[in-house]
Amino acid sequence: MSALPVPRSPAEFPHSPLSAVLRQPMLLGLFLPLQSGGWSASTAPRGTDWSFDYNSRLTLQAEALGFDLAFGLAQWVGKGGHGGAMQYREQSIDSFMATAALCGLTSRILLISTLHVLYGPWHPLHLAKFGATLDHISKGRWGINLVTGHLAYEAPMFGMERAEHDRRYAMADEFSRIAEGFWAAEGNLDYQGEFWRTTGAYVTPKPLYGRPILVNATGSPAGMAYAARHSDIVFTPSPGGTGIDEALPALPAHNARIQAAAAEAGRSVRILINPTVVCRDTEQEAWDYYRAIVAGADDGAVDGFIARGAVSDAQGWKKDRLREHRIVGGNLVLVGSPQQIVDQFLALQATGIGGVQLSFFDFEPDLAHFGQKVLPLMKQAGLRL
């Protein structure tokens, strides 16, 4: 069996869509609400919706504002979702299929599909072929957020048992190396690994810029090692908690560990974090909005979400247990006037964060307000070109 060839990252191509957005001092992304309830277990009034029509409007709205990327989660839940009166997240559309459809509707924004590659009958050849196809449809704007599945109740849905944490990353590493091998190989590929094998397979068309964009979310040593070898963009939770004052002291050392792992592999990565932004024209109005969201908490949904999270072995989420922030959503919750939001972005940048993947409570009007009031201040502050 021959060694697996390694493709170049699209970041190595000066004219690739990924290279274009990496010129931004701070990447700006939108975390789409592909699931009912979005990111907030609150029944306060809003128009946020899980439908494709709603999410396609959001994506086009974000693209018009100059956002760099958009993606959504992939989830597997049973009847009733996480529970509560709102049946939190019971309804959802698939991230892989939704972003594939968005490739044909957009022209500039990067589109990232989240996919559990260790569930079911997935083979690296599937991803290599599908990914190369979407790479051409999007003209190099498509990528994959590869996830291993940290929730114990998901794997049995596929007739499987959840593998141990670090073993899952070993499996993901082999899966990714084979898929990347297909994108780089000039002839048929033969390979026999510990978890997958292939004989005489070949993938066309070849991606336009080496390979599609590769993304993962991690806070663990095994996940950081995987990111160092494969990822262009790394999503990280806050290792110190979901409040900005808790996050800022813990992030510098955490981000430095991610970059050190990448440097050891001869690479660099861009680190993003996911804040929910609660912004109004004044600080008082923003906190009033925040309190209204919290007042609308669906306690059953919050309890169900926390209980399901308790069967996770994801090492990056252990300190993310503040109930109010579960209600509002996000790995961080940023509250304030437009200038205060920008000041918090600047503080995050100083810790080594290179981008924010934003979620909102009421997405369409909140995104419009962000574009009108916050984005110009980001440009003035040097966060956006």
Q: Please, could you describe this protein's structure?
A:
The chain has 385 residues and is an alpha/beta fold. It has one domain (10-380): TIM Barrel (Alpha-Beta Barrel). It has 12 helices and 12 strands. It has helices spanning 17-22, 52-65, 95-103, 124-138, 165-184, 221-230, 244-264, 283-295, 299-309, 323-328, 338-350, 363-380; strands at 27-31, 69-71, 110-116, 142-147, 189-192, 197-201, 213-217, 233-235, 270-273, 275-279, 332-336, 355-358. It has an 8-stranded parallel barrel with strand order 1-2-3-4-7-8-9-12, surrounded by 4 helices. The protein has a two-stranded antiparallel ribbon with strand order 5-6. Helix 6 links the parallel strand 7 (213-217) and strand 8. Helix 2 (52-65) runs parallel beside helix 12 (363-380) and helix 11 (338-350) packs across helix 12. The model is unreliable at 317-321 (pLDDT under 50).
- Please describe the biggest sheet, giving its number of strands, its sense, and whether it closes into a barrel: 8 strands, parallel, barrel
Round the mean pLDDT to the nearest integer and report it: 94
What is the CATH C-level name?
Alpha Beta
Arrangement of strands in the largest sheet: 1-2-3-4-7-8-9-12
Query: Tally of extended strands?
Result: 12
Order of helices and strands: HEHEHEHEHEEEHEHEEHHHEHEH
Domain tally: 1
Number of helices: 12
Q: What is the rounded distance between the termini? A: 48 Å
CATH-wise, what's the superfamily?
A: Luciferase-like domain
Percent of residues in β-strands: 5-15%
Known CATH architecture: Alpha-Beta Barrel
Rg value: 20 Å
Shape: globular
Task: Point out poorly predicted stretches.
Answer: 317-321
Structural class: alpha/beta
Protein name: LLM class flavin-dependent oxidoreductase
Domain Luciferase-like: 27-353
Keywords: Flavoprotein, FMN, Monooxygenase, Oxidoreductase
GO molecular function: monooxygenase activity; oxidoreductase activity, acting on paired donors, with incorporation or reduction of molecular oxygen
